[in-house]
Design goal:
By secondary structure, the protein is mostly helical. It has helices spanning 18-24, 26-38, 44-59, 76-88.
């Protein structure tokens, strides 16, 4: 059984955590992303990356759909078990 990695509770001398510090830079980071989008010199890839980061944080990442090759609809547990078997058999990375 694997455990989720817990956030560090370490604090700076003034009692702030890394998360506290990062939250304090949210507006600046969002400004940097919007500047990339607005800059005419930015590549299309940089603009798409910045836009994706903004949209993911604003609206959440889109869901992923699992599609079985044979078109049959199975429950998630069945799909995951089949994918695991393919990986164990070396048929998928």
């Amino acid at each position: 059984m694997t455990s989720k990695r817990a956030r560090s509770r370490r604090t700076t001398a003034d009692g702030r955590t890394i998360a506290d510090i990062a939250i304090g830079h949210t507006e600046k980071a969002l400004g940097a992303l919007t500047a990339i989008i607005d800059r005419t010199e930015s590549s299309d890839a940089a603009k798409v990356s910045a836009a994706t980061a903004i949209l993911d944080r604003a609206w959440g990442r889109p869901g992923q759909f699992l599609d079985e090759p044979d078109g049959e609809e199975d429950d998630l547990a069945t799909l995951l078990a089949a994918a695991r078997q393919r990986v164990l058999q070396g048929r998928e990375p």
